[in-house]
Amino acid sequence: MRLFKKDYSTYTDEDLMRSFVGGDRMAFEQIYERYEQFMVNFFYRKLWNDRIKAEDFTHDLFTKIIDKPESFDLNRNFKTWLFSVANNMCKNEYKKQEVRKNTGYDVPEGVEAKDGAILPDKAVDKSNFAEQLKIELSKLNDKHREVFMLRHFEGLSLNEIAETLEINAGTVKSRLHHATKALAEKLAVFRKTMI
Amino acid sequence: MTTEMENIILNKEYFELTPEELESVSDLVQNAEEYDEMKWFLASTQEALAGDKIQATPQLKKKVMDHLHKDQASRKFWLNGVSIFLWPTDKEVYRRPAFQMSLAALLLIGFLMVYNTNLEVDNVAVNDTVTEKTTGTEENEDLVVSENEETSEAEDADGKLSALEDDEPSGDNLERALEAKKSEDGSGSGPKDGLFELDKVTSTDEEEEVDVPDYAMHDGFYEEPKVESELQPVEEKIVLEEEKEQTIISNANNNEGVSDESVAFADDADTETDLRTKSRNNSLKKEKQKDNKPANKLTVDKNEDAANTYKNDDQNGGDGEYAFSTTTTADTTSLNQPLGGATTTTGADERRDLGYYNTATVNGSYGVDNVQEIDAGQMNVKSTPELKKLFKTFK
User: Fold this and answer.
1) Of A74, A141, B320, B393, which has the maximum CB count within 10 A?
2) Which residue of B has its CA nearest to A175?
3) Structure confidence at residue A128 as a pLDDT band (50, 70, 90)
């Protein structure tokens, strides 16, 4: 049986999409397995940490691929194309809501930033690093924050981020360098206490 | 490059960097201490962000997979989508697009039918012509133009020729009429006065009451004079009166002038003419009812009178220079008078009532030879376009 069964794990994303356009539903299932978590978390970050909304958007994203698989250009990178589609969906949602919240990487409820001042009693707490990171991220420019999250949270490369955001790779490198250095300077105090 | 830089920082120590790697990370860190801080920051960030990731619920995958298989089934026949769109079952009937579009189409068609009825003037004129012909046929039952409604002039001409044949099954009448027509066309060098005098006709209400159109015939020709044996008996009273008149006229002509007797007799024309008019009309109606043929009686009477007049003209020289007028008591005063002298008679209206007309000129003279042509100028017929067309057709 193994001889007649395709090993989709060895296929690239583009090959899987090519097979799916040809009518292979198993190829799409493989794609879904690869990017389900990416997309759910992407929407979760971008859409105000709303889990239900993130799953709804993930569902809509994959149903669009199912309905119109030919919309994908086989010459493009599937991962960047998928993220760009998801990013556009988020932008549309922002316009729809008419309230541009901080792009998904908002400060969780109950956490308030107080002019960047780190409370002394929490400064030494390692568990507070994540919260402080979010606070510092919220203070960043949207463009810098977006690039930083795509790089460190989604795991995209510079070129993939550039394709996703449809900007120059050099611009992505510059923004990422600026965001990383700024966050590292502000969160350096945790290193002294945590080590 | 940046990816490699971050991976390098996370995976290697500062002293392990190659010159190329050291050069690549030099934009971010300058020395070993900064390198260690950056390494710690990146590791802490990834750890912190990884803790914030969520797991998708199994329901999400199930819904997507259901959509996948459902979509595969529905993609077999794309036209189903059209029918579903046009006639969705989950909506009320009046809210379904197919119903709404059909209703809009009906409204549009109705609007165009109501407000887009452009009357074509030419067609309307043709229809009027046909209607008038039908009306004329009803008035003149003997003049059946054609059983079929034909609109073209050529067809009208053919229909009238066939009507002539119908009027006289023997066809002699038609042949004679055509021969007379040919002879007139050959002899006449100029236009027929009778035909063009229609434009000069001025009709009055009194004249319109005259029952002339039946007598005038549809083609402008009189019937061929019939012999006396063919004539149908009319009321005896009229015959006796006519004989009496002929006698008086003959006597008057023999005296080569207007006798006092004839003039005196003309005084009684008013009373006698009414009687004769009624009698002639009655006889005409009887002829129609009897044979359902063209009323030749009145024409015959005229021809008979014309023959008598011609005979009288012969007695006076018969040069044809005198107007051809039938012999009535009223016209006796104008007898042997040049054309136009008839206006001195007791009543021109009476002559019209009796259907007496001067013949149209063909050769520039008046006489028996022209007895078949009507002087349309004296006919009480309106110069209608249809009549003109009719004359032109036979011309």
Assistant:
1) B320
2) B2
3) confident
Q: How far is A192 from chain B (nearest CA, A)?
A: 10
**CA pair distance B23, B25, nearest whole angstrom:** 6
Domain boundaries, chain A: 9-97, 120-194
How far apart are alpha carbons B25 and B34 in whole angstroms? 11
Please give the class, per CATH, of domain A120-194: mainly alpha
The closest CB to that of A130, out of B3, B42, B48, belongs to B48
Partner residue facing A177 (CB), from B28, B56, B63:
B28
CB-based contact B216:B381 (threshold 8 Å): yes
User: Quick check: B214 and B295 in contact, CB under 8 A?
Assistant: yes
Neighbours of B48 (CB within 10 A): 20
Residue of A nearest to B54 (CA): A41
B105 vs B111: CA distance, rounded Å = 10
Q: What's the gap in Å between the CA of B24 and the closest CA on chain A?
A: 12
Which residue reads 């376009």 in tokens? Answer: B385
Residue B373: phi and psi, rounded to 5, are: -100, 140
Report the 10 Å Cβ neighbour count for B76.
Answer: 7
Q: Which of B37, B56, B61 sits opposite A184 (nearest CB)?
A: B37
| B253/B330 Cα distance (integer angstroms) | 15
Whether ipTM > 0.85 holds is: no
Structural domain A9-97, CATH architecture? Orthogonal Bundle (1.10)
CB contact under 8 A, A183 and B71: no
pTM of the predicted structure, to 2 decimals: 0.42
